[in-house]
Amino acid sequence: MKKKKGNLAELMQYAGKHKYLTYSSWVLSVISAALALVPFVYIFFIVKEVIESAPDFSQATNIVFNGWMAVVFALASILAYVGALMCSHLSAFRIAGNMRKKTMKHISELPLGFIGEAGSGKVRRIVNDSSAATETYLAHQLPDMAGAIATPVGLIAVLFLFDWRFGLISLLPVILAFVCMWKMAGPKMAQDMKAYNNALEDMNNQAVEYVRGVPVVKTFGQTVRSFKKFQGSIDNYHNYCVAYCKKCRPSMILFTMFINSTFAFLISLALILAGGEAIALNTLINFIFYVIFTPILTTSLMKVLYMSENGMVVADALQRVHSILDLKPLPEAVKGETPEDNSVEFSGVSFRYSNAETDALKNVSFKVDAGQTVAFVGPSGGGKTTVAGLISRFWDVREGSVKIGGVNVKNIKHEELMNNVSYVFQDGKLLKTSILENVRLSKPHASEVEVLNALHKAQCDDIIAKLPQGIHTVIGTKGVYLSGGEQQRIAIARVMLKNAPIIVLDEATAFADPENEALVQNAFAELSKDKTVIMIAHRLTTVRNAEKIFVLKDGQIEDAGTHDELVKSGSLYAKMWKDYQTSIGWKVAAAKPSVIPSAVEGSRGKGGNV
Q1: Which of 279, 323, 344, 512 could join 485 via S-S bond, C-beta 3.0 to 4.6 A?
Q2: Dihedral (C-alpha) 455, 459, 462, 467: value to the nearest 10 degrees?
Q3: Strands of 369-420, DSSP E
Q4: Would you say 532 and 501 are in contact if contact means Cβ atoms under 8 Å apart?
């Protein structure tokens, strides 16, 4: 069995040669902690000299020297600590950057459906926040921990150097505080930290998805109901945080009380040693030394407390990064086969999403001939988008096979498959770069002439004409934004430039306004020439002229045929078509003529304006 690496050892794998900077930061932090103790010794010498020379303070001749020595060692401690932080930050930034690069590289190799299943908000938080947690841990917390561990070790040696009785009593509240800290920050806290991050991750994911869905929510007039899932994640996070704080409260109160009660223990011992009489001068001096020195223990232990918690945060962050890195890419074909034509065939395909309880597709079989235009329609959740995703191999089927040109997609190299299939999503995604580079994503080495030609075919001439710098205009800067329909046409131009023989249109006109929809449909007509086209649609008018329509319900093909055949058959499609015709035939009822004049007259009679 392979031994699991520790969190620090794993982080150092991302550091490369910079890991020596991390080690150097620890050494410098320990030196800084040791030097930081020395000024307290010199301050004690000053106090001791003042007490011993009283009332003739002229005999206190070393006060200035001791004061300057305290300043020198304090400055030396600060310089060593600054050097430690410089080393730790250089290494931490490199580690966080390399972790993000590795995670993003792995995501790029995962199935295309991974982001959709996991949720973009969750993936973003893992990539950004988890690596950021390691950066804070390495840049600040590890050097501080090295110093925090070194400080008590030095303190314990010094505490027993002057008076072992005061040294021993100073450690008693420390031991009690450690017991409380262990109860609060022990192994159970690791589980609590994981649950906390799960709640936070879910809330972030729901926030991202809700914000993305705001246009749809506003379009359809949804209010509280649309907010319910997001609100639920917020409430869940709130309830967990409150419960967790209440659970930690008793231990934290006791820890704070004990760690700050050293003075009470010291005073009690001093009174016991005095025995009701005047305290001896030597005992008084030792007492003052411990009063000056022991607060450093409180500061160091507070750091250790937070270090243990932050260590758990990093462990959880690495575990979440591994939740992505441990996912396996789809197996690549060793000897890639080339499709014979542009046909698409499903044979006994069954597929289930990773976290689903039922199959999204159940024993689905059909064939689309090369150059044919077909459509998939049906109720939501019927499996239409799943069919589209499997053609592009967003996932692998559980049973059966998906073939392009007679070749199983598993036996086609990824690059070859992407060259054969173009996918137009319902929400065209544009990057914050120029129109030229957005279109070039499908063909990086295309000339400007080729890009302009693709934009012209995609009905984008009016878009380019209104942009200040034409195709060199950067989207999203200086108020340059495009409507949903305009973005979709740019996305279609990207597909046209690629010129793949198989086109998958997944609800590609879902969010287009009527004017843009007409232009998008013209662009589709140009795009579909001599291509195999597979359309996924809810608007039945957009698929009416398809050569064949497949009706999907509950993951199975319920019926197939032309529009006229399906309407005459009286099947589910016929009902859907009837309902669709009814919906577009709705008219707003006009008000009765007799009502309008009376309303007008009433308002005029009262001095109202019409």
Answers
A1: 512
A2: -30
A3: 373-377, 399-404, 407-408
A4: yes
Q: What's the pLDDT tens digit per position in 85-105?
A: 999 999 988 888 888 888 888
CA proximity to 313, closest of 185, 222, 216: 185
Q: DSSP for 83-116, please give it.
A: HHHHHHHHHHHHHHHHHHHHHHHHHHHS-TTHHH
Task: Give me the count of residues in the chain.
Answer: 610
Mean pLDDT of the chain: 79
Q: What are 360's two structure tokens?
A: 């999204």
**Tokens in use for 193?**
């930290």
**Residue showing tokens 């973003």:** 124
Element at 477 (helix H, strand E): none
- CA 436, 441, 445, 446 dihedral sign is negative
Distances (CA, A) of 569 to 289, 529, 539, 575: 98, 30, 20, 10
* In the predicted structure, residue 378 carries a pLDDT above the cut 80: yes
Which one-letter amino acid corresponds to residue 168? L
At 114-139, the pLDDT tens digits run: 776 776 777 887 888 888 888 878 88
Cα 184 from chain centroid?
28
CA trace torsion 542, 545, 547, 553 (10° rounding): 40
Question: 283: Cβ–Cβ under 8 A, 6 or more apart, which residues?
Answer: 163, 270, 273, 274
Nearest C-alpha neighbor of 545 from the set 564, 529, 519: 564
Q: Are 276 and 237 in contact (CB under 8 A)?
A: no
Answer for the pair 29, 146: CB distance below 8 angstroms, yes or no. Answer: yes
The CA dihedral of 533, 536, 541, 542, to the nearest 10 degrees, is -40
Torsional class of 530: left (φ above 0), alpha (ψ -120 to 50), beta (otherwise): left
- CA gap 49, 62 in Å, rounded: 8
Q: Give long-range contacts, CB 8 A cutoff, 24+ apart: 29-32.
A: 29/80, 29/81, 29/84, 29/143, 29/144, 29/146, 29/147, 29/150, 30/146, 30/147, 30/150, 31/80, 32/77, 32/78, 32/80, 32/81, 32/84, 32/147
- Cα separation, 431 vs 448, in Å, equals 18
Peptide bond into 55 cis (omega under 30): yes
